Each structure stands twice: as C-alpha cells, then as structure tokens.
Amino acid sequence: MNKTQVAQILTIASGFDRFIVVDRVTTEAWFMALEQVNYDEAMAATVGHFTGPIAKEVFSVRHILNTVADGGRNSASAIEADVRSAKARGLIEKSWPSRNLLPPDIRDALFTLREFERRQATDRLALDQGDGVPADVGTVGRML
After folding, report:
1. Are 79 and 36 in contact (CB under 8 A)?
2. Which domain holds residue 98?
3. HSE-up of 81 (CA within 13 Å, CB side)?
4. Distance CA 30, CA 35 (A)
C-alpha cells in the first residue's frame, strides 16, 4: 500500500470517528505499519471495524493488522514462512528479502503447490489405511 492509499484509509476512518486526525505525521506512521498490507483488505478491515461489534473501541492501526493477519497469510511469521517455502521451491530468487510479501501470482502458485502436496499426502495416507497394508513381510531381514 502506498502513502496515498494509507491517507484514504485514514480519511474514511475519520468519517466514522471525528477524533481521527489525518495529517502528514499520522499518514507516515500508519504507512510504516501498513506498507505490506493490501489496500482492499485494509479498507474492508476499516469499514468492518466501524460497522462491527467492536465499533466502540478506539480505532488504531492494530485493528487493520489483526484483521488482515487473521484473514490471510499476512502476519510477519507467515510472510517469512511463505518466502522460505517459495525459495525452496524455486518460485523466487534466493535474494528475496524474507520480510517482503510475495507478489500475488507467486502467492497463488505457492498455495496451489501446497494444496497439491496436501492432497498427495492424503492419498498416501488412504492407501496405508487399507486391509493388509502395510504388508507384513514376516521375519525377512530381522535378527532372531
């Protein structure tokens, strides 16, 4: 998200709460916290805050971060795990910073690969659950 988008988020929030100040310092501070957050998700979190059950709480940047982190893989630890996973699978360069959010197409590819691997693991588990599986090989190779 860029600074203009952060200012738009703050402006919308100030429409709900007259005590929210939209100035250069506030915009810069919120930008530093929200730089890696998707604009649409942040806007949805902002509107959701003021129309949801916690509307009486004082709105802060943590409300956006918590909502976005719950809704996707946008927490710092999830981003770092995704970057490690994407590097291991060769989806991004090894020099990609571990704290930078992956581009949307890489995130989609990573999700697809993970889902494929989960399904393969489930299929292998189902094979192991059948009658007579794993096969009993008796005493072959065992010391008596």
Report:
1. yes
2. 75-130
3. 8
4. 8
| Interatomic CA distance for residues 110 and 123, integer angstroms | 20
Model pLDDT, residue 60: 93
pLDDT of res. 89: 92
Give dist(CA 55, CA 39) in Å, integer. 20
Q: Does 141 reside within a domain?
A: no
Do 68 and 80 fall within a single domain?
no
Residues 89 and 57 in one domain: no
Q: Domain ends where: 72, 104, 121?
A: 72
Contacts with 3 (C-beta within 8 Å, 6 or more apart), sequence order: 27, 28, 31
* C-alpha to C-alpha distance for 40 and 11, rounded to whole angstroms: 15
Residues of the chain with pLDDT under 70: 69-72, 74-75, 128-144
Q: How many CB atoms lie within 10 A of CB 69?
A: 19
pLDDT at res. 72: 64
DSSP label of 94: T
Give me the number of domains the chain comprises. Answer: 2
Q: Is the dihedral of CA 27, 29, 32, 36 positive or negative?
A: negative
